[in-house]
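Subject: two folds for Thursday's group meeting

Dear M.,

Sorry for the delay on this. The cluster queue was jammed most of the week, so I only got both jobs back this morning. I'm pasting them in the order they finished. Each block is the input sequence followed by the predicted structure tokens. Could you check whether the formatting survives your parser before we put anything on slides? The first protein is the one we discussed after the seminar.
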Amino acid sequence: MNIKTINIKGKIIGGDKPLICIPIMPMNNDEVVEECEYVKDKKPDMVEWRADFYSNVHDLNSILSVLDYIKRTIPQFPLIFALRSDEEGGHAAIEEDKRIGIIDKVIRAGLIDIVDIEIQKCREIIDMSKRNGIYTIVSYYNFKETPKETLMLSKLVEAQNEGADIVKIAVKPKNYFDVIALFNSALTFKEKYGSIPEIDISMSRIGNISRFAGVYFGSSVTFASGLKSSDSGKIPIEKLRMLFDTFVRC
């Protein structure tokens, strides 16, 4: 199917070339500075701020201050904002109403380009994002297992039907058959149902092939390891570039 591409600051999501995103996960303001300098040096295509790692995540003004700093310091990179819940692999003990409230205020502030929201909470956030010109990644995470192919496919389709701009699935494999199951679901979505970009991740070292080979099955963005990494399967950006330049971008 024809995929509706997204152009943010000259970076095409869903185009012919996969994009590389580096997550930053600072715990304090000193680490914000350090990780932004790291990103400057590595020059990824995109940046994701995992705000649930930040020690002052409960304070909206602190969150907005960090976003303002990121926007001023590395304005050339499209910025994804992610504040994950405990159930979806988040690292902050924060009440759900407050978490959604912070995400809402961040969207209204206009300091980000994309917001990542779990499929269970997406409707209100999608509506707010569209009103404020922010793109949405609607995500399904499973940190225990890789579900059946039919369930993974249904989650991708459901997220698209909810109005997502990008759909994302990240699951935990127990073996390589699970990795293949993710690839099958991703490719089926791309070929039969998808009209928007997708991001497909098989986590851990077993699934790290998905960080590179996922592009062949529909994945538009891959996440490289940063100064810190939330998943042992992430690959350094230099190695990803070498692989993409050799096999994909030639």
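Second protein, same layout:
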Amino acid sequence: MAMPAPEHCPPWAHDPNWKSDPRFSRNKPDILTLPEDRDKLRAAGRLAKAILNYAGSLVREGVTTLEINDKVHSEIVRRGAYPSPWKYQQFPKSICTSVNNVMCHGIPDSRPLKSGDIINIDITIYRSGFHGDCSATYTVGSVDAPGLALISATREALDAALARLEPGAPFSVIADAVMGVAHRHGFNVSPDMCGHGIGREFHSAPIVHHTRTRRAKEMRMVPGMAFTVEPILCQGSTEFVLHPDGWTAVTVDGGRSAQFEETVLVTEHGVEIVTVDETGTGS
């Protein structure tokens, strides 16, 4: 498959033995202090949202997730960027497509979507040295009322969390908001699937929990931090098993799940959602 110019490719695009940069480990956030770095993150976020909107427009009954993957890959490269998941720790495709009881990291395949399915599409792009990451859950044809309620509650939970973000706030406000909304609607929040720091690295510190932890109470949001908020709500059990592919996580009870995700940047004056439409508006 096509690739963008080398300067817009992450190191794993050409090196299967790549290891994460120790400067931006899971233990140390990558703090963006330079205005030009923050602007590059914003640009990556806007492009990621544009690509997600394009991917969502492809969702319909009868289309395969592999067809969506291939069209999205071509559009990302056409826009001068690289699909971050492709070849990342040997992930075989360019996007994640998680259908019904797949919680996350679903690998696009040749099965056609059916009316009644719900599908999360997770997009991450890399351009000019920075990643932008966002996802949304879409409906296929006619979806039943419980499925629609799950999707609506998940978006509401994310929006509630985003509204609580501010410089100096503890990360525990995210879990408080997400769990409050989820439980009010009768859904459960995955404690295992977390948000993450992002920027020059695809995944770095901080780990962003959507359920309450002691660590989240101790961690504070610092200007220059960029991270994702991406709660997964489940109709039933939040326990999961991995498929033999090592990526696809499915609920043990077959219950459906939904997820929405945005990338945010903490500044000296507030917290910006950087995965906005290219017009500057949110989702």
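Two things I noticed about the second structure. The chain has one domain: 30-273. The chain has a mean pLDDT of 95.

Cheers,
T.
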